[in-house]
Amino acid sequence: MLLALQIILVITAVLMTVFVLLHKGKGGGLSSLFGGGVQSNLSGSTIVEKNLDRYTILMAVIWIACIVALNLLQAYGG
């Protein structure tokens, strides 16, 4: 059980990192300093961006649940 939670924790951490990096920049960061923020968003938030938000939140919830479960197992000797 402990090993399975650790594996899930690592997988969700990697997936969450990938999903965060896939998000479009909202502007105002370092990319706009070097001319990356010149493009304007005409369509706003797309379906893909909304789904990416949902997947990122889902990965974060699973990640936090694994951390809590691992802590409980370690505290109470699972």
User: Span from first to last CA?
Assistant: 8 Å
Question: Rough shape?
Answer: elongated
Radius of gyration: 18 Å
Number of H- or I-type helical stretches: 3
Transmembrane segments: 6-22, 55-76
Keywords: Cell membrane, Membrane, Protein transport, Translocation, Transmembrane, Transmembrane helix, Transport
Family: Belongs to the SecG family.
Main location: membrane
Can you walk through the features of this model?
InterPro entries: SecG. Belongs to the SecG family. This is Protein-export membrane protein SecG. By secondary structure, the chain is mostly helical. It has a domain of 50 residues. The protein has three helices and no strands. It is elongated and about 45 Å long. The N and C termini lie close together (8 Å). 4% of the residues are buried.
Short précis:
This protein is mainly α and 78 residues long. It has helices at 2-22, 30-33, 47-76.
What's the arrangement of secondary structure elements?
Blueprint: H1 2-22, H2 30-33, H3 47-76
Key terms for this structure?
78 residues; mainly alpha; 0% strand; elongated; membrane; transmembrane helix; transport; Protein-export membrane protein SecG
